[in-house]
Structure prediction request, 327 residues.
Amino acid sequence: MKRVLSGIKPSGDLNIGGYSGALQQYIKMQEEYESFFFIPDLHAITVPQDPKELRHRSKEIAAFYIAAGVNPKKSAVFLQSQVAAHAELGWLMETQVHFGELSRMTQFKDKSEGKDSVSSALFTYPALMAADILLYQATHVPVGEDQKQHVELTRDLATRFNNRFGETFVVPEPIIEETGCRIMSLDDPTKKMSKSNPNKSSYILMLDDAATIRKKFSRAVTDSEMSVRYDPENKPAVSNLLEVYSVFSGEEIPVIEKRYEGQGYGGFKKELAEVVIAKLEPIQKTFHEIIDSEELLTILKDGAERAAAIADETVRKAKTAMGILTF
Ligand code: TYM
Prediction:
């Protein structure tokens, strides 16, 4: 049986990078896999969060899942904090992961750089992420490129645990789409598109309105060559726009290149904005319809129950294997 587990942190306004690298994959994969899509709120609090905002953002991520096409009848959608086994297995995994391994995680290096102090949970975060995945015996984990290192550590931990304590966990595979797994900033194609960029025009938010999206794409940096061609090495900015176009239109990059052959960037950028708007508008409409609904909370409750049934069994198995007295 193929099983998928993945999630998006409720730590900032969702941008189209998260959609491209993660969410759009969830929608496709739920047709073929037994699916668990969660909201990693316990991960969000590894950096300071405003409690009121965190509550709202957690619902927002759930609403984005549903609005983008995650079907709660097929997939379990739930909050990490509602399934206690995450924190419990997270602790057990902390006892297995090495300090040196955690020290090598690039996300920790990026997020702690230049800060006077960071929480110890930011450092041990990958142990909790491993627990998230291993609890469900997930065979596949769809993520963007930036999470690859964490999934690889999860594989190492699962293998180590199985060797030490006997076969307990499925060793999961990351699923990273070739196109759209690393959407870059619109103002600098060497940086990942991220809400932490102070330049608001550098990212497109899932809730940006049409006028804002048009303005942001019109300002996107390109190059002086004036040809719409995919060449990430020599034309990183245009290649990034082509990836966005491909993800949002569902067309292959060579088809798009052909359409704009011999043309400059003006028309391409204008039409790219329309492609993104066409995809986002229905998502935004459904998002607004469900964000404050009782139905959303019911989906989360139901999802947590379905998730806990599996997660509780796994954590019990892991504890027993480790010699924790369970009765
Ligand atoms: P997070 O919340 O930072 O990002 C959510 C997902 O979106 C992808 N992503 C991107 N993909 C392409 N281009 C971008 N610019 C971009 N920005 C974000 C991320 O790779 C990710 O797949 N640690 C995880 C959350 C997590 C998780 C898990 C994921 C916790 N436990 C278990 C999978 C399985 C994170 O911080 O992702």
Q: What stands out?
A: The chain has two domains: 3-181+293-322, 200-287. DSSP finds 13 helices and five strands in the chain. Residues 133 and 186 are 32 Å apart (CA to CA).
